[in-house]
Amino acid sequence: MGEPDLRHHGDAEVRGGAAALTDLAVNVRTGTPPAWLKAELVASLDGLAAYPDGTAARRTVAARHGLPVARTLLTSGAAEAFVLLARAVRARRPVVVHPQFTEPEAALRDAGHTVERVVLSERDGFRLDPAAVPDGADLVVVGNPTNPTSVLHPADDLARLARPGRTLVVDEAFMDAVPGERESLAGRTDLPGLVVLRSLTKTWGLAGLRIGYVLAEPGTVAELERAQPLWPVSSPALAAAEACSGPTALAEAAAAAQRTAADRAHLVARLAELPDVTVIGPAEGPFVLIRLANAAAVREALRASGFAVRRGDTFPGLGPDWLRLAVRDRETTDRFTAALAEAVAKVGAGRGVG
Length: 354
Known about the structure:
By secondary structure, the chain is an alpha/beta fold.
């Protein structure tokens, strides 16, 4: 098998004519953005003639995590932060923990870095042993909860990776979908070299707007800011950052996280009824990773039945027998798992798909 396509993402499953499929491929919460957030975005349009001013949004995001403004940087989605880190951090031995979101490694390679991989094993439930990371690594990237495995690593284990002379990047793009944001490092200021990345696009349905942020030591924030172009975050995105970081929005996100956890439990229970499907658990993110034989053919059979799921073979450390499923409401889950059972039976019988 060749090198995984690091630039393949779930949105490729639902582009063009495939947009009509029921989407379990993209990890964006359905029914978003909410009406009140749309109203905030519309109101921001009156100020489009002025250059963006992120002062208020940056202050609100910093306060949301109990941090000074100097430790906060707003970015055009968390993906921009990976590019900034790859360009600004002077790393001699960068290490990326896989399986995980592939954009960090792609950005590092594009910037000329030679990237080492620490590949976690299904035998260990894709859980990280801090001792597996080489002592000489001066840049370490790990997701929490990790996409696509949905594993939530203990904060204490991640904290053990921090040390002077090392930049520790923890991608918490899905942490606001975890009830109580358990195991988050976002508010920590005692860990040397810690960089936490957050995204507002998943919970709030803002993938098309591009808004995220970095939490790090002031010196690191200043380096990343120097690597940014002028006015990197649009006025509507700044309005979203401010609106989604206030108390009312945080309460709504917390309630959504509880609903997602209940819907995920329903999905896992339905999948457990299928003897040919292995579910990686316990899952803690708004998605579930499964293993089954002939996953590529099953995926195509699902598409023929009206469902899009995320292929797993583009993640280093996985392969052709893996699929990632976004958590959806119970009615959608019931329809999907019935289609999955039918697809598995069809492919197993050798009929496949045309």
